[in-house]
Amino acid sequence: MWRLMQQLLLLPLFLAWLPAIYGVPQFKALTARQTDSSPTFVYRSDTRSPGQIAKAGGFLPRGYEMASDDGFSVYRHMRGATDNGGGAPVDSVYVSTTDDVKVATRIAAATGGYVYKIHATKNVFSVKDTLKSHYLYLDQKEWVALGGVRNDQIEAVVYIKKQAQKPGTTSKGTAEPDLKFKPYKGYNAAKYADESAGPPQPQLAGFTDGHPAFDEKSWRDQRDKVKSLKYEGLKYLDKVRAAGWEPPYANTPRAAASKGADAPPHDGGSDKESDKARAERARSRLREKAKSKPKEPPSDDSFPEDHDGPPDDKESSTADDRAKADRLRRQRQKTQSGPNKTGDDSPPDDPGTASDGGGSDASDRSMAQRAKDWLRKKFSRPKKHIRKNHQASSAGSDDYGGSDARNANRHKGTKPKQKSRNKGRRG
Predict the structure, then answer these.
(1) What is the DSSP code string of 281-339?
(2) Domain total in the chain
(3) Does 57 reside within a domain?
(4) Which DSSP category does 261 fall into?
């Protein structure tokens, strides 16, 4: 009897403990389901090597400047750009990953490339849960990283060789235990120990006008709440940054950032930027550089920075330049001093023998011969030739110390004889 009374007294206490006993496992099970929906690691296929990824600062989106409103559209990122072979649009702010290593392996095996294991953070969220029934590539299990993936988030990497496939078939991929991942240099395990992916972001769905999604009241209401895609995207990114995560391009030069082109998983992991966009960007940089930096003529021993290089025959080109300079110098001297016929006793210049520092034997002989000819003409004139020149130069002037009367008397004895001789012949 006493034992029965003890059991009855303990029964209410037992009933009070019952919810607590069974409530703890139920709470743990709910937490486990939440953890499974937010993966700790995601995977990405990429053709670039680990060295290239580290140099770029991680995986950067094409639209890392976040200037376009359409670049925040998850739907546009999923569909890809028609001018880039299905790759991400040029202005997309997302980097594509997947939570299934088999998907990343299958993509890498199609062309040959690397599979990177990435520690997820709150800027990574599910495309399927964001677009819901309007997600088109269910088999790829895509998760996008808003703003990109930092280099220190990459835990490991493995290279996948290209595998030939029969037409109409797809690779089944490889389970992670079969892959020989190698530790990635630069991974910060302590920094991301408690990190995992974030919740879906339906406000960033960004369906195009006329999309069937707006036939549903829930999506129409969502559209009315959104101020702009860019506003909502930056607002969520600020929350992630407040928790301690920074975009990979925060401390990365733009030149390296522009190489971080992104591609969704369904484009084969090519990860190549649009050729047209890249060419236009390069031309713009060249035009800006040309405007900001005036062109200067090259010196004798140097070339401008944008010159392709020295000429093929550098020595002959330099000698020609020196010869031209010497000829110009001699012409200036001639103009200043006047021609030789005005009384200049210096020998004439020899334009054919420029002082180019070398000087051949033939040139020396030619110069000596010209000097001899000049001396012969200067000092070896016949007396008769000198007298004629003297008469021609002194006629009508007194430059040589004479006069017209004096010159007439100098030849007085000659002319009368001719007259008398003529008179005798006539008589």
Answers:
(1) HHHHHHHHHHHHS------TT---TT---S-S-HHHHHHHHHHHHHHHHHHHHHHHH--
(2) 1
(3) yes
(4) -
Contact indicator for 145, 127 with CB cutoff of 8 Å: no
Residue 416 lies in a domain: no
Per-residue pLDDT of 198-219, as tens digits, reads: 999 999 999 998 999 999 999 9
Q: Which residue from 49, 170, 186 is spatially nearest to 105, judged by alpha carbons? A: 170
Adjacent-strand bridge partners of 44: 116
Q: 13: which DSSP letter?
A: H
Q: Which domain holds residue 165?
A: 30-285
Q: To the nearest 5 percent, what fractions of the chain are helix, strand and coil?
A: 50, 10, 40
pTM beyond 0.70: no
DSSP calls for 79-99: H--GGGTTPPPTT--EEEEES
Strand order of the sheet with strand 41-46? Answer: 124-126, 142-146, 94-98, 41-46, 113-119, 154-160, 182-183
Sign of CA dihedral 150, 153, 157, 160: negative
Cβ within 8 Å of residue 393, ≥6 positions away: 399, 400
On whether residue 178 sits in a domain, the answer given is: yes
374 in a structural domain:
no
pLDDT in the model for residue 167 = 44
Report residue 392 as tokens: 């021609």
Closest CA to 243 of 168, 191, 186, 313: 191
Say how far apart CA 77 and CA 81 lie, in whole Å: 8
Helix-then-strand count for the chain, H and E = 14, 9
Backbone dihedral region for residue 132 (phi beyond 0: left; psi -120 to 50: alpha; all else: beta): left
Q: How many CA atoms lie within 13 A of 414 on its CB side?
A: 5
What was the pLDDT predicted at 163?
A: 85
β-strands 182-183, 124-126 pairing: unpaired
Answer yes or no: are the C-beta atoms of 195 and 121 closer than 8 Å.
yes
Instruction: With beta carbons less than 8 A apart as the criterion, state whether 74 and 136 touch.
Output: no
Token pair, residue 410, equals 């100098």
Tokens of 182: 């190698």
Blockwise average pLDDT, block size 10, the chain, 427 residues: 64 55 36 58 96 95 91 92 64 95 94 96 96 92 96 97 62 63 95 95 94 92 92 95 88 42 41 56 73 54 38 48 74 62 46 45 70 76 51 42 46 48 47
Rounded Cα gap, residues 60 and 366, in angstroms: 73
Rounded Cα distance between 159 and 47, Å, is 9
The CATH code of the domain that includes 161 is: 3.90.210.10
